[in-house]
Amino acid sequence: MKIATYNVENLFDLQRSGHEYKEYIPNSYSKWNQKNYAIKLKNIAKVIYEIDADIIALQEIESITALKDLRFELKRLGLYYRYYKIANYKQTTIKVALLSKIPFVYTHEIAVKASYKYRNILEAKFIVNNQEFFVLVNHWKSKAGPESMRIVSAKKVLKRMQELGLDKNIIVLGDFNSHYEEYILFKRKRKHNDTDGKTGINHILNTIEHTKIAAKTDLPYGEFYNLWYDIDKENRYSYIYRGKKEALDNILISPSLLNRSGIEYKSSSIHAYKQKYLFNGKSINRWKMSRKRPRTHKGKGYSDHLAVIAEFLVH
Q1: Helical H runs in the chain?
Q2: Average pLDDT of the segment spanning 22-26
Q3: What pLDDT does 83 receive?
Q4: Residue 117: helix, strand or coil by DSSP?
Q5: pLDDT tens, 117-170?
Q6: What is the distance between the alpha carbons of residues 108 and 121, in angstroms, rounded to a whole number?
């Protein structure tokens, strides 16, 4: 069973909702129009089609319309996701979503905070071979905000894990805007470190002590394992910022998924999707806009993130 996460970078539809970024107001000076929207859908669909995950978590989808249009584009390519859901209870500018070949038992939105600065978490329950598992799709506050904002989202994840049961199969994935060792990287960044060195991904979700490969990790209940530790350090990235490789997108798993029974993570299967066309030299081949202002869409590129994929064995 292949599970992936992909921040598709601003997949906005062509309907005016009043919540758009100014460069994505449909049919305006920025050239966010039918032609460029069709190219963006085609390019993102190409990546998702090639990955061919059973379940893929998406970030930065504007609306159910955009999600359905993407799904239709995938169907044209021959990949049919019968089940789909977007976290759209709250009118945030961009949202998280799920596409799945496996039926949902249910989906549920976890409200993080009333403020539009926080995106809701999307939870889905699945059953495969009589084994249940839960997927929680996240998109935490960007680095424009301090770590205390990401801690709010992390606490919601932990609370939900405790409600579901610490022994359950839980996969927490998405764009955390946090490196797998955020607690080391952010220490000197005053703009981010407003929490006395505590981070959401490492301290709240208790990933800090589990830095061995999966096969050698003994994970206590109530803690998570970050799958990035299961592969070589040079391959642990999904984003490149000013030439520096970062792992903002993560897949975390609960202890039962390391237990080698029922459903289990397949050792060393985590990887970022790194086809040549997704790079421009040493940069990621992101969706292109003019540098000159007002900024306009060029109709080229994919996303500023790489998709991250992990495989699971179902016994």
Answers
A1: 34-51, 64-77, 147-164, 182-185
A2: 95
A3: 98
A4: coil
A5: 999 999 999 999 999 999 999 999 999 999 999 999 999 999 999 999 999 999
A6: 9
45-62 tens-digit pLDDT: 999 999 999 999 999 999
Element (H or E) spanning 271, and its range? Answer: strand 271-272
User: Looking at this protein, which amino acid is placed at residue 313?
Assistant: L
pLDDT of residue 18: 86
Say if residues 40 and 301 touch (Cβ distance below 8 Å). no
211 pLDDT above the threshold of 90: yes
Prior bond to 255 cis, omega within 30?
no
246 is written with which tokens?
């970062």
Q: How far is CA 302 from CA 42, 195, 276, 286, in A?
A: 9, 35, 12, 5
Mean pLDDT of the chain: 96
**Cα–Cα distance for residue pair 289/279, rounded to 1 Å:** 16
Contact 241, 296 (CB under 8 A): no
Question: CB of 222 within 8 A of CB of 174?
Answer: no
Helix (H, G, I), strand (E, B) or coil at 61: strand
Residue 191: predicted pLDDT: 85
280 CB neighbour count, 10 Å cutoff:
12
Beta strands 170-175; 131-139: pairing state = parallel
Beta bridge partners of 127: 132
Alpha helices in 174-281 (DSSP H): 182-185
- Tokens 């998702």, located at residue: 48
* Structure tokens that stand for 153 in this block: 């989202």
Over residues 282-298, mean pLDDT = 96
- Percent of residues in the chain assigned helix, strand, coil, to nearest 5: 25, 30, 45
* Domains in the chain: ranges and CATH: 2-314 (3.60.10.10)
C-alpha 96/C-alpha 119 separation (Å) is 8
pLDDT score recorded for residue 72? 98
Structure tokens at 214: 């999966």
Question: 226 burial class (0-12, 13-18, 19+ CB within 10 angstroms)?
Answer: buried
Asked if residue 222 lies in contact with residue 166, where contact means CB atoms within 8 angstroms, the answer is yes
